[in-house]
Specification:
The structure is a single chain. The protein is mainly β and about 210 residues long. The chain is about 10% helix and about 65% strand. The protein is built from two helices and eleven strands. Strands 1, 2, 3, 4, 5, 6, 7, 8, 9, 10 and 11 form an eleven-stranded antiparallel sheet that branches. A hairpin with a 2-residue loop joins strand 8 and strand 9 (about 175-185). The two termini are about 30 Å apart. Mean pLDDT is about 80; it is low at about 15-20.
């Protein structure tokens, strides 16, 4: 995963060194995270569940026009994302149905996402444009903790620190401003232990400024 990120960033920066146009963008985002969990091992057959975590993110990206006057761009950047959720109970599946256990817990996640995208700028008017984009991303799960994280990790092992996935979305630009949305999905499992495995996905809505 690290090798993929370094090689991809090097290739994009090398291409950019001979390109004529580029742009910088800073953004803020509302970015909830979904953790799709599937029971396995002795718990297999009890179905799946999705945990949703509210969150926000700040990001930077830079776009490089691949060929002059084609409006096709290679885009690289980085996003720092924070997600959190407070629990007052959890539901554990049993043979007789879900068993609710009262707890007082908060889960916190800090992720660093490195997206690599191809983007096309479609001019609608002199000031307005549409920008569909798609690509791949690497994610570093810098922090993944809760009140019981030490006990959990001793019993089941630590979650994976790195993940690989894909993303797609659409931005609407007006001069130097942009609003947009997108979806990210990880291919790599976040947790994979004797009780369950899980994968992450994220929606985001952003407001951005370009210069």
């Amino acid at each position: 995963m690290k090798r993929f990120l370094f090689i991809s960033l090097f290739m994009i920066l090398h291409i950019a060194s001979v390109m004529a146009q580029d742009f910088h963008e800073i953004s803020v985002r509302y970015s909830p995270m979904m953790l799709d969990m599937e029971w396995q091992g002795q718990m297999e057959g009890y179905g799946a569940r999705t945990e949703r975590y509210n969150g926000f993110a700040v990001g930077y990206k830079r776009g490089f026009e691949l060929w002059e006057e084609t409006n096709l761009y290679a885009v690289a950047g980085a996003t720092i994302q924070w997600n959190s959720k407070k629990y007052d109970h959890i539901d554990i599946p049993t043979e007789s149905g879900n068993q609710s256990i009262l707890i007082d817990d908060r889960e916190n996640f800090l992720n660093v996402v490195i997206p690599l995208s191809i983007m096309y700028h479609l001019c609608i008017t002199e000031h307005v444009g549409l920008e569909p984009f798609a690509g791949v991303q690497g994610t570093w799960h810098a922090i993944a903790e809760d009140s019981y994280s030490n006990q959990y990790q001793e019993a089941y092992g630590k979650p994976n620190k790195f993940a690989f996935g894909c993303h797609a979305g659409l931005d609407i630009t007006y001069d130097r401003f942009a609003i947009g949305g997108g979806y990210q999905m990880d291919f790599t499992k976040f947790d994979d232990n004797i009780v369950y495995y899980s994968k992450c996905s994220r929606w985001n809505i952003k407001l951005a400024f370009r210069f």
